[in-house]
Each structure stands twice: as structure tokens, then as C-alpha cells.
């Protein structure tokens, strides 16, 4: 079950006083803090990878419901980078953008486009070493495919991030 999103405008965020912001910046730039954050992320990678794998499994089962498909792709997009799966994060991001454009155009999802993304996500998340995987080539091809499909939808504008390189 997906929950409706709440839009929070940048002007609605609380503003911290300048001295607090300066102190926070100094703390975040401290090498000890960066080292601790890196250790915490490294310790959590295995759990995050498992969560990404579960989301990819659910993604395959969600192909009939665009909202569920989007929710699972969004989950993968959010977790995969910190799980050490940057290709999966990028591919999930492309799928989210495609699904969002299809929704805005009021058109049905092309099952071939989603199937290609899902296959790429399965390979990206099950690979032993993400850097030796699909990387830029597959991401560029999927990006070009999504750009072409968005153009076919006659959506007002194709984001620059979709243009083929």
C-alpha cells in the first residue's frame, strides 16, 4: 500500500540561526565525524543490500500497478547508493523518472520499458562487484530509451538528464 506524498516547500523548512549553521558545518567537516559516518555506512551495507534485494523482488511483482512499481523503484533508488550499488540506484532513478512522466501524461506504462529496467536492476543488485557491471553503457542506453519514450508521450519537456550522450 502506498501512502500519499506530502509536498514540503523549501520555505516551510525551519531556519537555523547562523551560529548554529556555522557550528554544524565545522562539526561535519571534522575528519573524525567523516570517519565515523563511513564506518557506520560500511557496517550497514550488508543490511542495506538485503533491503535492496527484497525491494527488487517486490518490484518484479509490482509490474501491474504503476504506483507500487514507482514505490519500489523509489525505495531502491534511496537505498542502493549507500548499499554500494550505484548502478542500481541510477537505474532505479531512471525508472522513477519514466514512471513519473507517464503518470503526468496520463498514459499507460510500456511493459517493455519497465521489463528492461527490472532486468538491469536484477543484474545490478545481484552482481558481486558493482563497478564491473553494466555501469555507464547500460545506464546511457536506458536513459536514451526513456528519453525517446517521453518524447513519444508528448510531455512538455524532456529533462536534460535524459538526453542521450
Query: pLDDT under 50 segments (min length 5)?
Result: 157-165
Second-tier CATH architecture: Up-down Bundle
Strand content: under 5%
CATH class: Mainly Alpha
Largest sheet: none
Structural class: mainly alpha
- Helix count, per DSSP? 6
Q: How many discrete structural domains? A: 1
Report helical residue fraction.
Answer: 55-70%
Morphology: globular
The mean pLDDT is 81
N-to-C terminal Cα separation, in Å?
Answer: 37 Å
CATH topology assignment: Four Helix Bundle (Hemerythrin (Met), subunit A)
Q: What's the SSE pattern?
A: HHHHHH
* Radius of gyration, taken over Cα atoms and rounded to an integer in Å: 18 Å
Give me the count of strands.
0
